[in-house]
Amino acid sequence: MGRPNKAYVWRRAGLLLVILLCVTFIVSASNPNSPEGFLIIAHRGASGHEAENTMAAFEEAERLGSDFIEFDVQLSKDRKLVVIHDDKVDRTTKHTGDVDDYTLGELEDMDAGKSTSSDKKDEKILPLQDVMDRFAGKMAMLIEIKDSKLYPGIEEQVAEVVRRYEQRLNSTDLKGTRHLKGIGGVENSVGIVIQSYDFESTRLIHNLLPNIPVAALIHEDQHPLSDDTLDALASFTAYIHYPKELLDEQIVQRIHDRNRKVIAWTIQNDEDMERMKELGVDGVITDFPG
Ligand code: G3P
Ligand code: CA
Predict the structure, then answer these.
(1) What DSSP character marks residue 125?
(2) Is the CB of residue 89 less than 8 Å from the CB of residue 100?
(3) Which of 4, 48, 61, 63 could form a disulfide with 288 if both were Cys (CB 3.0 to 4.6 A apart)?
């Protein structure tokens, strides 16, 4: 038998390469922990670049290609949902006092640009509804219910807004909506995830909105989580959001063993980002998306 000619050898090598690529693709696509890829979640918007929780920060996150924008909600004096991190206005505006000392109209008049060094003007405290209208079908949103104990009933109000949003998206052909369904490899009707440090608040949201995935936000005081706590969280959450400083391979594995996603917060630099990827987390919440 003669030696195979060069063309034959190259064809065989090409075929082997194609098979290898297909196998790699199938293996990675069937990984139950990251079938849709690594999630980049813009913390309070792209808050490393623009004032946190403002339209400028959310639009910058969109421009940078984030998968989600994350933001925080509280209630105004007239019980309207507003997007602001603290329960006081002091840090992010030039005013003082509790968020619920002010009506929605008064909060909307405040300059919310104080939290960046650039002190951007004309960035306002936003009603939740405005953010959801602006990004409907375009960006996935991670909504954090803040200070649930301060605002009894806030979960029902958030649930009502999300229900209306869900109905709107399911009845309207909004650009990008299809992409948001199932984002992050989790069954998700409209690309909304709701999180809270308060596990009972998160459980209540899950009961009110069974189609919307919820995330347990782990505070450093709750670390390490016992197996019983993890089992309980896994019974109603899709994600466990863990402080990056406390994450190691073991906790990532324990969460993945329960078939839940691990998201690390809050990533501020490339070094942290690389470490999180090495640990095998499913995504990060970062001030510097993109
Ligand atoms: O999503 C994680 C992060 O938002 C929790 O911390 O204080 O920035 O709301 P905080
Ligand atoms: Ca938050």
Answers:
(1) -
(2) no
(3) 48
The candidate with the shortest Cα–Cα distance to 73, out of 170, 156, 191, is 156
In angstroms, the CA 141 to CA 41 distance is 9
- Using the atom order of ligand 1, give the atom closest to the CA of residue 195: 1
Question: How far is Cα 98 from Cα 77, in angstroms, rounded to an integer?
Answer: 9
Q: Distance between CA atoms of 231 and 235, rounded to whole angstroms?
A: 6
Tens-binned pLDDT, residue by residue, of the chain (290 aa): 456 677 766 677 666 665 555 444 444 433 333 335 899 999 999 999 999 999 999 999 999 999 999 999 999 999 999 999 999 999 999 999 999 999 999 999 999 987 665 555 689 999 999 999 999 989 999 999 998 999 999 999 999 999 999 998 888 766 556 567 778 888 887 999 999 999 999 999 999 999 999 999 999 999 999 999 999 999 999 999 999 999 999 999 999 999 999 999 999 999 999 999 999 999 999 999 98
Instruction: Give the Å distance between the CA of 24 and the centre of ligand 1.
Output: 35
Q: Report CA Rg, the chain.
A: 22
- Asked if residues 167 and 119 have their Cβ atoms less than 8 Å apart, the reply is no
Under 8 Å between Cβ of 218 and 225: yes
Q: Please tell me the distance between residue 76's alpha carbon and the centre of ligand 1 in angstroms.
A: 20
